[in-house]
Amino acid sequence: MNSLTGSDAHPEGATVMAVTLHRAVAAVRPSAGCHTVEFECGHPAVGESISPQDARRVSQMRRIGRAALRRWGFHRTVDEAELVISELITNAIQNGCGSVGFSVSFEGATVRIEVTDGSTSQPSVRRQHDLYAESGRGMLLVDQIASRWGTSADGTRTRCELQGVLGAGMEPS
Question: What's the pTM?
C-alpha cells in the first residue's frame, strides 16, 4: 500500500462536479470528472448504532459513486468503489463530527474517493479483530482494495485511489 499525503487534495487537471444534498434531494452542477456531496448527519454516541436516516446516506453516496463511475466508463471498478465508499462514509458518520463530505473523481485510469468528517482522529487498520464482531474491518477492507490510501495532515480527510478498469476500447468521458 502506498500512502497519500495532505498535498494530494485534487490532482492537477481533475475536473469537479459538485452535488449537494439537502433533505435527500441532490442538486448537481455539471462538470466532467468529479462528484462532490456534503451532508449533515447525527453522529451516534459510542456504542450506539447509526440512525436509519444516516444509514440511507451511505446508500445514497454509493448510488452517486456508482452512477458517476458508470458515466465515466469505469464499469468494472464499480463494485470495489461501492465497498470503499460504504466503509469510508460509515466511518465518517460513526466517528466524525459535523457535516460529512464525499467526492469521487478520476484522472486517467485512477479513481479517487475522498471523505471528510471534521474529526482529527485518523482511521487505522485493525489487523487483529474479533471474528464475530459486527464492526472493525472497514479500514482493513479499504487497505486491501485501494492501491493507495491515507489521510490529510490534519486528519479530517480520508482518501484512497483505485486503479480503474475501463471497458474494452473505452476512454473516460
Answer: 0.72
